Predict the structure.
Amino acid sequence: MLNKIFSLGLIVFSLSLHSASASNAETAITEKSFTIYLVRHAEKQLNIKDPELTTCGHERAAAVANQLKLVNLDKLYSTNFKRTMQTAQPVAINKSLDITNYNPKELQLLATKLKHNHENAMVVGHSNTTAVLAGLLANQPLGSFDESIYNRIYQVVIFKDAVQLNILQQSFVCSD
């Protein structure tokens, strides 16, 4: 009888210990882990100063918002250009977020802020800033990419002092 009571007590203790450690692990992950998504603006009109998105660009922006529909975002950043703001707008609407503007000439400052805030965020930029910012966040040297590329989403996952950089490809195909 004493063995049964001891065994039952050991099982209950093990379950409570497992439950407590699982709860602590979940809390630690939530508190220490965050993800930043970086996207270049969608297709823009050509030969115009501060161009807006094309029809295809608006469709791509909607596709990005749809692709990130299930992603938890706390903050949304964009440069103050029509094409980047229009790319960010569908995400802002889906997530009920305001768009915070940043200066594309101050990428190091933005990288420091993003790391310090520990928030899930999306940053909309340009062909000469998006990969560079992803590299700053991931401590990897990345440069600009060709202006014809619109289908990349950089995902930077930060957990404590570890950083994982993933480059995702959109399967979006423009209908026009």
About this structure: Helices lie at 2-32, 55-67, 82-95, 107-117, 130-138.
